Inverse folding.
């Protein structure tokens, strides 16, 4: 159940992120950089090596999210069994691609920052997503 909630939140944040207007997207990115830098406690030397790797990973994940959204745009109800099978295979391949990207990222980033800071990064990302979602809900009047 907890994994489903994380997937749903990640999907919602990804969708909001992809559809955010240019200036809003830039503002969110700036806030995220500041939030992560503070939470992880990056030194200036670490930050110089960290951010290019992190940004490359974010770009890869954004590409995967775009592919997922494109795949999900197909209404499952109107698909034949073979089309549904192909779509499902495509979605599973995208999950594998995301897993592989996450593995490669952690492998690269742990050469730049300590394992403790990697764990702090993962926590900071989750916390940032939660805050972003809370602010979005407040703005929408839903909570």
């Amino acid at each position: 159940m907890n994994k489903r909630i994380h997937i749903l939140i990640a999907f919602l944040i990804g969708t909001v992120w992809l559809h955010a207007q240019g200036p809003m997207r830039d503002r969110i990115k700036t806030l995220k950089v500041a939030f992560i830098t503070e939470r992880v406690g990056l030194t200036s030397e670490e930050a110089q090596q960290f951010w290019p790797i992190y940004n490359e990973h974010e770009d890869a994940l954004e590409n995967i999210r775009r592919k997922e959204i494109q795949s999900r745009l197909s209404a499952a109800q109107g698909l034949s069994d073979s089309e549904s099978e192909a779509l499902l295979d495509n979605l599973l391949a995208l999950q594998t691609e995301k897993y592989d990207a996450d593995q490669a990222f952690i492998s690269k980033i742990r050469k730049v920052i300590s394992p403790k800071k990697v764990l702090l990064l993962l926590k900071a990302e989750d916390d940032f997503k939660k805050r972003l979602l809370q602010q979005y809900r407040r703005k929408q009047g839903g909570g």
